[in-house]
C-alpha cells in the first residue's frame, strides 16, 4: 500500500480508488483500514465520480505516530495527502474525524474544495472543563501505555454495557482495536480543543468553502444539536438530517449524499 510522508517525517498509509476530483475520508475514533468495513464500501460507491483516498490516521494501521501529538500534526497529514493528489481535495469526516476535517479546512483554505461532516460528536450541554477532564484522563492512561483500558473507557463512554465490553474484550476482534487504543487521546484532544472555553471557535470562520453538516434521525439526540451548533457559525454551511440513519450509517445512503453535495 502507498504511503506519504507528513511534514514531521511520519509515514501515513493510504489507498486510493476511482478517478476524478480527490476526496479524502477522515476516520473517527478507533477507525482504520484494518477493522473498518463501512468506509471501503462507501469508497466503492464514490469511486466512479472521485479519486477516493482512505487513510490510516497517525498511530493506526500502517501509519506512524511521531511524538509529541498535536492536532496540527494531523492537519499536516491531510495536507500531505492533498499535495500528493493534485493539490486540492474535498474532505469527508466521520464523528471526531468530522471535527478534524473542519479544523483542516480552516487551516488549509483553498486546498480544500468542500467538506461533508457526519455527526460531529459535540455535546453542547457538556462544559469545556468536562471535555478537558476527559482528555486528561485519557492522556494519563496513554502515558502509562494502557491502551486496553482506554478502549474500554471509550466504549463505556458511548453507552456500551459492562457485559458487552467484557464480551468484546474476549472476542477475536479485540486485539485489532486495542492496538489503536492509545490514539483515543488524539480524538479527545480534537474535541476538547473544538469546545475550548465554551465558545464557538473563531478559527472555523476561515472554512469558507461549502460545508455540509449531516446527522441521522435515529442517532443520539445530542448529535443533532451538535450538528446545528457546528453549522450555525460557518460562513457557507448547509444542514441535512437523514431519515433512518444512526451513528453507524449506511455507506450507500451517505455516499449518495456526499456525491450530490460535492457535485462529482
From TrEMBL:
Residues 24-252 form the AB hydrolase-1 domain. Transmembrane segments: none annotated. SUPFAM superfamilies: alpha/beta-Hydrolases. Gene3D superfamilies: alpha/beta hydrolase. It comes from the Bacteria. Pfam families: Abhydrolase_6. PANTHER family: AB HYDROLASE-1 DOMAIN-CONTAINING PROTEIN (PTHR43433:SF10), HYDROLASE, ALPHA/BETA FOLD FAMILY PROTEIN (PTHR43433). This is AB hydrolase-1 domain-containing protein. It comes from Devosia geojensis.
Amino acid at each position: 500500500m502507498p504511503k506519504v510522508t507528513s511534514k514531521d517525517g511520519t509515514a501515513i498509509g493510504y489507498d486510493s480508488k476511482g478517478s476524478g476530483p480527490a476526496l479524502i475520508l477522515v476516520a473517527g475514533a478507533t477507525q482504520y483500514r484494518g477493522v473498518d468495513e463501512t468506509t471501503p464500501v462507501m469508497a466503492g460507491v464514490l469511486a466512479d465520480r472521485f479519486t477516493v483516498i482512505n487513510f490510516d490516521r497517525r498511530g493506526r494501521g500502517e501509519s506512524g505516530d511521531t511524538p509529541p501529538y498535536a492536532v496540527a500534526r494531523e492537519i499536516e497529514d491531510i495536507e500531505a495527502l492533498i499535495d500528493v493528489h493534485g493539490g486540492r481535495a474535498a474532505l469527508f469526516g466521520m464523528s471526531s474525524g468530522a471535527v478534524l476535517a473542519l479544523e483542516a479546512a480552516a487551516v488549509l483554505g483553498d486546498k480544500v474544495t468542500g467538506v461533508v461532516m457526519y455527526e460531529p460528536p459535540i455535546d453542547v450541554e457538556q462544559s469545556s472543563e468536562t471535555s478537558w477532564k476527559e482528555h486528561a484522563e485519557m492522556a494519563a492512561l496513554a502515558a502509562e501505555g494502557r491502551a486496553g483500558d482506554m478502549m474500554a473507557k471509550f466504549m463505556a463512554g458511548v453507552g456500551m454495557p459492562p457485559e458487552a465490553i467484557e464480551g468484546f474484550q474476549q472476542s477475536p476482534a479485540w486485539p485489532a482495536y486495542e492496538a489503536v487504543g492509545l490514539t483515543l487521546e488524539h480524538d479527545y484532544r480534537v474535541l476538547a480543543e473544538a469546545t475550548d472555553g465554551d465558545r464557538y471557535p473563531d478559527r472555523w470562520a476561515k472554512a469558507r468553502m461549502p460545508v455540509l453538516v449531516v446527522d441521522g434521525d435515529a442517532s443520539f439526540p445530542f448529535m443533532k444539536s451538535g450538528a446545528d451548533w457546528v453549522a450555525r457559525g460557518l460562513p457557507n454551511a448547509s444542514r441535512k438530517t437523514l431519515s433512518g440513519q444512526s451513528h453507524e450509517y449506511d455507506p450507500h445512503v451517505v455516499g449518495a449524499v456526499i456525491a450530490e453535495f460535492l457535485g462529482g
